[in-house]
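Hey all, quick one. A colleague (J.T.) asked me to put the pyridoxal-5'-phosphate job into the tracker so the inputs and the structure tokens live in one place instead of scattered across chat threads. No bug as far as I know, just bookkeeping. Sequence used:
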Amino acid sequence: MIRVKDEIKFVRDNVKEHTTWFEESIPLIASENIISPLVREMLATDFHNRYAEGVPWKRYYQGNLYVDKVEERANELGKKLFDCAYCDTRPTSGTAANIAMFFKFAKPGQTYTSCNVADGAHISSAKFGAAGVRGLEEVTYPFNVDEMNIDIDGTIKVIKEAKPKIALFGMSVFLFPTPLKELQEAFDETECTVWYDGAHVLGLIAGGEFQDPLKEGAHILTGSTHKTLPGPQGGVVLGNPRDKKMEDKMNYGVFPGVLSNHHLHHMAGKAIAFAEAMEFGKDYAKDIIKNAQALAQALHEAGFKVLAEEHGFTKSHALVMDVSEIGGGTPLVEALEEANIITNKNLLPWDPANKALNPSGIRLGAQECTRLGMGTQEMVEIADIFKEICIDKKDPKVVRERVRSFKKEFTKVHYCYNDGANPYEYIDIAGNI
Ligand SMILES: Cc1ncc(COP(=O)(O)O)c(C=O)c1O
């Protein structure tokens, strides 16, 4: 027989243990981040309990007076932050934003061009992923593995030949800006919709420290609001639509296209995250990139094969290592996890598909450690800890003590209001039941 209170205790205890584990760990997954106290506050409000289908001031439900005010402001803040004409904060994830655009900008059987998943693109851009829902034909760009970027001449040729309805760019292993300006002649010739998936690099774009895809030829910018942009889990559609018809497609793709209700508490959190990014985003983006480059350099000096050495390893928050000669992705990320270092294994462009369970790569991101107040000195120490585990093959359980003591100094959130608040605090609203 189920004892309900025991079940609830099980859930709460495990969430608490998870939080303590992360408090004692070094977080290096390139797609994650921690939210500010103000964003966190929004997530536990009555906005969570409500419905608001449609757009501000044109709803299908009553009770949206304050929701409309906040959503209108959220979209205005997004437009200001990204210096563009259009912002929709409703998508519940980056993937939902992407499906909405696929839905409205190409019809079944039509072609879109995209980066290859094996080269680091996200599954939502692949035919076997979210793009497949629309029954579109995918043609991928050639990739230059030395530069860890799409090949410009090859991509121009692919776009001119495929004549896609959509030319999609952006990746999950996003080390360098996409050469959009260089592709403009192909965009002009084919009159395709140019769409940039900036899920990973949204915070760097907002901070003015990566590229500005909307000034470099893209009409649409989609993204996640919880990676380098440290807001609540969710997505966003931004852009400079060519005309009202295009704007309508962007709007109706989201609702009624792929959403019914959006998540109003997250929408309010996005408004706060955008506002905080206006104040703190430039410094944060600069420091993220500085740290990613310092971590890559230190890992390289410690004996790791960090990709794109000749190009300075990275111009973003992320870096990638080939660890095939020192044990392979899976055993190493497991050993790192045992030592409280949280990372992910990654297929590298030259890995055969059957290596997915033990790929050659490990991907790292510096955005969360930066937000916790770490600087380049800490990146050097992290590289040394990696060496102990992956190269010197020290017992991860022993190294874990070094990680725990190192992390004690970095348990506060920065680059936001209430700087120095503890993001690992379990807020006990319900008390004992
Ligand atoms: C390039 C890219 N697009 C889209 C997504 C999906 O974002 P979400 O997890 O918000 O659905 C990701 C996730 O990592 C991504 O890397």
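Adding what we noticed when we looked at it: DSSP finds 13 helices and 17 strands in the chain. The first strand starts at residue 26 and ends at 27.
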